[in-house]
Design a protein that fits this description.
mainly alpha, 163 residues, globular
């Protein structure tokens, strides 16, 4: 057992931490409410559809998709079953390696994510970008990347530019 005293948060760090925790809890819930209300899907389901829509040939291995949406394979499989039932995705063995399963966005899935995206983007803009100045938006991007990389660079969200 270590006898070293923990590095306690000072008052400013404590306030910043609580603000981050509050945002990390409340933002996904707010985005989920908007998507449920306007598109009849959860934020997690939207993320699955959106990642597939941005992928080459609208296809990803389930393991890669689980990593992108930060969900377990079990959770993703359960969600994929629902999305398949709706006709929005299909799952198929990976022809390159049959041990893997591919998730493929169907044309109906493309239509669903395309219909849901304008409202989702408007809500993201309202909740995240409109309250911030351009300088704060840049800081948010830099801070988000640093925290994400500290958590683990292998799981970091793909970025288009480096800061």
């Amino acid at each position: 057992m270590s006898t070293d005293e923990p590095r306690w948060l000072d008052d400013d760090e404590q306030e910043a931490w609580l603000a981050l925790v509050s945002t990390g809890t409340r933002l996904p819930a707010a985005l989920d409410r908007q998507l449920q209300r306007d598109a009849g899907i959860s934020h997690f389901e939207y993320q699955v559809l959106a990642w597939l829509s941005m992928s080459p040939e609208r296809t990803l291995r389930m393991s890669a998709l689980a990593n992108f949406v930060d969900g377990s394979l079990s959770r993703l499989s359960h969600t994929a079953k629902r999305l398949e039932k709706e006709g929005w995705i299909r799952r198929t063995p990976d022809p390159a390696n049959g041990r893997y399963t591919l998730a493929v966005l169907t044309d109906q899935g493309w239509d669903k994510v395309a219909a849901a995206t304008p409202g989702h983007v408007a809500e993201v803009r309202r909740l995240v970008f409109d309250p911030l100045t351009k300088a704060q938006q840049k800081q948010l991007r830099q801070i988000g990347r640093r925290i994400s990389n500290a958590i683990g660079p292998d799981n970091a969200c793909p970025a288009t530019t480096n800061d």
